[in-house]
Specification:
This protein is mainly beta. It has 1 helix and 27 strands. The two termini are about 30 Å apart.
Length: about 400
């Protein structure tokens, strides 16, 4: 369905607090018109596994989403997004291999540089971004990207005194050797509350890698900012933090500093998992809630056509999960180690495929669409960054 041209950006300066593979083939279902409006919601499907009743200590069972502005548009294959300390956003172009800065006050876009060595193809390219927790002193930006031989993580000096387009220094690789593939490259990176760097990886379509603790594929990794194993990891000499994953593209921490991860299923169940060090999340032996000894079941699960989850963020007591094939934003209220109520869907088929969601000041989110990644149907103004108020 045709969408009207991009409206003017309406955002005021917002302090952003945290950054943070489509199953099946392309999805070309229609979307309604774009533009700031209150969003209706639909209940989660009856087979989406979650606790049926809210916990007294959790957020309300029902939430709300309001799209308050379109910050910017006409982005090319946006993927990773990271917030700078002042509130502006850094946005990676998966296929273009470039990083742009988007002003949180007005949406002005400025390309700051490109990442040499990026080899886009399939689901690979320039993927996740993260800003150093010591950015005020070290000015370092981290990127997860696909090369001709592997996926790797590198850091680059961001020097704002240089001309636009030349502000990124040469990549300093902190971790290499993450398996690459046409599909299932993972790619999300984020610094945790412990100031360590976490990465979600995929098994590249070779399912056995997920259970192989010697491989970096199909894992969640935890490392120092220099890419070294962290004291307290399950294996003192390894960056592997958890295993048995198919394709992790969402990482976020809640108010209790617990790590949550979104994961693509194959044909049946997509997952939201509560991550604990050293645990086995089942793939390829288990998909979704299997109830099998030795495997950790997801906290919530969805049919793949309803989710295909990429980025997640925590805000207003809930995890918010962007859906690609599902073309909707899921709210998962939390309490303890479970969802405190059934997941709730918003913006269904209104803005197309949704790639990345980032927590903003207060009860706000930035939401990034993904219509120009080769699997969508771009309309006027795609791809875009939306400003949301959530409850």
């Amino acid at each position: 369905m045709h969408r009207p041209a991009l409206p003017a950006a309406l955002a005021a300066a917002v302090l952003v607090l945290a950054a943070g593979c489509s199953s099946g083939g392309g999805d070309t279902s229609g979307r309604g018109p774009a533009g700031p409006s209150p969003a209706s919601s639909s209940a989660s499907p009856s087979d989406a596994a979650a606790s049926p009743s809210p916990s007294p200590s959790g957020p309300p069972a029902k939430g709300s989403v309001t799209v308050t502005a379109t910050l910017t548009g006409d982005l090319e294959s946006p993927w990773g997004v990271a917030a700078l300390p002042g509130g502006d956003l850094l946005v990676a172009s998966r296929d273009g291999g470039t990083i742009s800065r988007v002003s949180a006050d007005g949406g002005e876009k400025t390309e700051i540089g490109s990442v040499p060595g990026v080899a886009p193809g399939g689901e690979g390219g320039l993927l996740g971004l993260a800003v150093s927790p010591s950015f005020a002193s070290d000015q370092m930006v981290y990127a997860y990207f696909t090369t001709a031989s592997d996926n790797r993580i590198a850091r680059m000096l961001y020097d704002e005194s240089k001309p636009a387009g030349q502000q990124l220094g040469a990549p300093d690789t902190v971790l290499r050797g993450i398996p690459k593939g046409v599909v299932h490259n993972g790619g999300r990176i984020a610094f945790g509350p412990d100031k360590m760097l976490y990465a979600g990886t995929g098994e590249t379509g070779e399912t056995g890698l997920a259970q192989d603790k010697e491989s970096l594929g199909g894992k969640i990794l935890r490392m120092t900012p220099d890419g070294r194993p962290v004291h307290g990891n399950p294996d003192a000499d390894s960056v592997v933090y958890s295993y048995g994953h198919r394709n992790v593209q969402g990482l976020a921490w809640d108010a209790d500093k617990r790590l949550w991860a979104a994961e693509f299923g194959q044909n049946t169940w997509d997952e939201l998992n509560l991550i604990e060090p050293g645990r086995n999340y089942g793939w390829p032996e288990a998909e979704g809630k299997a109830g099998e000894a030795g495997f950790v079941d997801p906290v919530a699960q969805w049919r793949t056509e309803e989710a295909s989850p990429s980025g997640i963020a925590y805000a207003a007591g809930s995890i918010w999960m962007a859906g690609l094939r599902g073309e909707r934003l899921w709210r998962i209220p939390l309490a303890g180690a479970d969802a405190s109520a059934k997941p709730q869907a918003f913006l269904e088929e209104e803005y197309g495929r949704l790639r990345t969601v980032v927590a903003a000041g207060g009860d706000g989110l930035w939401l990034v669409t993904s219509e120009t990644d080769g699997r969508g149907t771009p309309g006027g103004g795609d791809d875009r960054i939306l400003r949301l108020e959530v409850r």
